[in-house]
Structures are given as structure tokens and as C-alpha cells.
Amino acid sequence: MDIMSIANSPAMWIACAIPVCFVVLQAVLFLREARKAGAEMGLTNEQMKNAMRSSAVTSIGPSIVVLSGMLSLLVTVGAPVGWMRLSMIGSVMFESIAAGLGTSAVGVTLGTDPMTAEALGMAVWTMILCSIGWVIFATFSANKMDKIEAKVAKGNTATMTMIASCAIIGVFSAMCASHLIKPVYQLALAADPAVVAGSWKNCLACVLGAVIMYVLNTVAGKKGIGWLKEWALTITILVAMIITALI
Amino acid sequence: MRERNKIWRKPKWITKTFYNEKYMPKVNRIGKLTGYLGVVLAFAPALMLAVVYGILPKGAALATAFIAGASSFGVLWFVEPISYFPVVGSAGTYMAFLSGNISNMRIPCASMAQVAADTKPGTEEGSVIATIGMAISIIINVSVLTVGAILGASVLSMLPDGVRAALNFLLPALFGALLVQFGMRLKKHALIMVVIALALYFAIGMGWFAWLPGASNWLGTLGCVFLSIAIGLATLKNNSKKEQA
After folding, report:
1. ipTM score
2. Inter-residue contact B70 to A131 (CB < 8 Å)
């Protein structure tokens, strides 16, 4: 039997559906608890509905990015495994590297050489073994870190809000800086001009995203336009993406 | 005596609220159970290959690949949950690491949900709303991927090249927009953090931290999150001193 038809067989679809459904099940369980707690704590139905809608709208763009990254995995390890790996503990970059490490240990270069049975097994096992570390440590440590944070903040709400707000700013300044500064150090290191040009475009997209969001948020805030506030993020990333692609 | 014992066992900053007494214990129970069970279930496709098709990799080759993977990602297993915890909290940590795509999807969705519900990060209400936001983003994300996987590579590759090229710019634009969204509340702090982050990433890019294993993967986020918290807490302390004086 051809190896790619094994990789895309109904049996593999079933095996991969188990962990994928489990991820959704976990999300549903947490959603139910959080909604119950929210009602108990005095959050209005309106607030929770707004939260759900806003999150759904925000998910769509990044989901499509992941989907387009999934293409290469679908071709190399088959649709079911690619689907499962990106729905669970997944990130496109990590999965492709892990799959490549697995196959290269048995002498198959992922994406160039034809897939063999041995290499497929290696890719699947390596992706799984290399990804569970995150879940094991996160699951083990979550409640412990919660206790540490409570101790640091000593139950002071202002301190807790400060920690969380600063952490968010920290995460996104890190993500932005990684795109903004890349062309600069690539120039300093005399990288390939084509590579540097690509980095400048990412840098531009990041700047445009920030500027457009600033304008839209300010306008929406000053004029009190509710729908603009809600759609500002979606409009921003679409416009920034299109302008960058056209330049 | 009994009274004193009680006080000793419960630090005074843990208040008796529904959130602390009922919700958090349940979150931890669900989180631990689903987290560890998820790890076991992740092996389903590997076992299917072994049992039905008899494809089982040789131990030595697998060990080689695993060691190569662990030496490039191993630090991330520990650093990422610690870096992202102050942002996503307990329930968020259980969910985000089982589902993945943390910085590009889970955190943006959880944070935007808080904005939409008009709750503050770090509060009990904010944490419940973030959990709702994250759960919804997982459901949407898995649905989109499922449609994509069923349509298959042949259909997906029909996306025009221009669209696929443009998609590369979505994440940088999203990060820029979110930095503004959350930075506007603490403008001065956000500006300082951007300067620090640029300096840190420049140093990492130039390879000045090459002596730290895999630093380019984790040092930036870890450094920025904890520097940002440290600076924020220092400012808070400073301000309260000024108020008292």
C-alpha cells in the first residue's frame, strides 16, 4: 500500500479525530464553567456575548494564516496528521521543523525526497514527543504559578491589574520588536538583499497595523462609534496587509 | 484556637469569593485532568500507525530525532508557560498549551474579549472573560482547520499567490495593532517597553546572546514580559509613595 494513502486513510482520520475532538471538549468544559462563574459574579449576558463575538471575529484572520501554513504539512505528512498537529499543541513552524528532524534521522529530506513508511512513522512520533513537553509542564505548573502570583500581588487588585496589563504590553512589544528590528540587524550582518527586502515589508506591516489602529481607535473613541471600536482590529489588519502587499 | 488555625491556613489575601472557593478549584480539576489525558490521547495517530499498519520507528533513530528536537525546543517547554502565565492565568494556561498558537491567536482573542466585555485584565471578571474568549477562539480555529483539512491541499493550493503572499503580513499587522490597543492605556510604559524590546531583539539578532542555548526562540518574550512587569510594579510603588507623602 502506498504510504501517502496510509497517511490519508480513514483509520488515520479516526485516530487524529480523537485528540482534535478532545481539544474542543476541553474548550467547551472551560467555556461552561466560565459562563456559570460569570453569571454568579454579576457579569451580564450582554458582556459575555460581546466577549464571545469579539473573540470569534479576532480568531478568523490568524486561523487563515495557520491554514495557509498547513498546506506544506498536508502534503508531507498527510491531511489527518497535519490537521491534528495544528489543532493540538500546534504551531506551523514548530511542526514542520519537528517533522523534518524525524524524517532526516532516517535519511529522508522532508518535502524533497519521497516519503517512506519509516519516515512517516518517525515524523509522527517526533512531532508528538517534542510537543508534549509544553502540555506536561503547563498542566503541572499552572496552579503553582497562580499561587506565586497571588503572593506577589498580596490580593491587591490594582497590583494584579498592573501585572496583567504590563505582561500583555510586554508580549506584544516583544512580538512587534522581532518584526521591526529584523531588517536592521540583517543589514548590519550583510544578509541577502532579497531577504532584507522581505523583512522590511514585515516591518512596514507592523508599523501600518499600529498607525491605523491608533487612528481608528482615536476616531471611534472621540465620536463614540461603537461598531468601529468592535471592528477596528479586523479593518486594521486587512488594510495594513493589503497596503503592504501592494507596495 | 480553632480560629487562629484557620487564619494561619488561609493567607488573608485569599478572599472568600465564588471565584476563589468554587471556580478556581474546578478550573484546576478540569485543567489537570484534560491536560494529562490530552498528552496520552496525542499518541493516538502514532499508535494507529503501529497497530494497524505495523509502522513503528526504531528506538535509536527516534531517540536521535527526539534529542535534536529537545535541544532546540526543550527550553521553550518551560519558558513559554512561565512567560505567558501573567497574561493568560490558570485556565488560560491549561487551554492555550493544549491547543497551541498562543501568541498569534489565544492571547489576542482573550485580550480582545476583555476589551469587548469592558473588564480589566488581572481582575476575577477579566479572567473569566478571557477564559470565555480563549475557548471560543479554540472552537473557531479548529473548525477553520477542519474545513481546510477536509478540502485538502489541492483546493487550498488554488489560493492565488498574491493572497498567500499578503497573508504573510497579517501577523505583523496584528501585533502592531494589538500593541497600540493595549499600550494606549499605559502610554509611557508602552513606549519605554518598545524601546527596550527593540534593543533586546537587536542584541539577540546580532547573536550577542548566542552563548545561551536557543536564546533567539525565547529570550525576547521572557525578557520583555518580566521587565515590563518589574517596571510596572516599580512605577506603582513609586506612585503610591508619592501619594502618601
Report:
1. 0.89
2. no
